[in-house]
């Protein structure tokens, strides 16, 4: 029962964040998106490599 309540609370919190984000978030400028993309793609790649290393290291 505790797990079901926890999952329900997490779902409600995520739904609230989506609704508030759609209502109050301002769109980012193309320059800001380019700066974020410049950092995001290498970080995702590094996370994938590190997870593969962790999987085979154990």
What does this structure look like?
The structure is a single chain. This protein has helices spanning 2-24, 30-57. The chain is mainly α and 58 residues long. The longest helix has 28 residues, at 30-57. The mean pLDDT is 94.
Largest sheet: none
Report the C-alpha radius of gyration, rounded.
18 Å
Number of extended strands? 0
Number of discrete helical segments: 2
Mean pLDDT: 94
Write the layout of secondary structure elements.
Layout: H1 2-24, H2 30-57
Jot down its keywords.
single chain, 58 residues, mainly alpha, 88% helix, 0% strand
Short description, anyone?
With 58 residues, this protein is an all-alpha fold. 88% of the residues lie in helices and 0% in strands.
């Amino acid at each position: 029962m505790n797990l079901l309540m926890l999952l329900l609370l997490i779902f409600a919190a995520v739904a609230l964040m989506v609704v508030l984000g759609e209502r109050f978030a301002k769109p980012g400028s193309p320059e800001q998106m380019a700066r974020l993309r410049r950092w995001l793609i290498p970080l995702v790649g590094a996370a994938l490599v590190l997870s593969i290393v962790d999987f085979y290291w154990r």
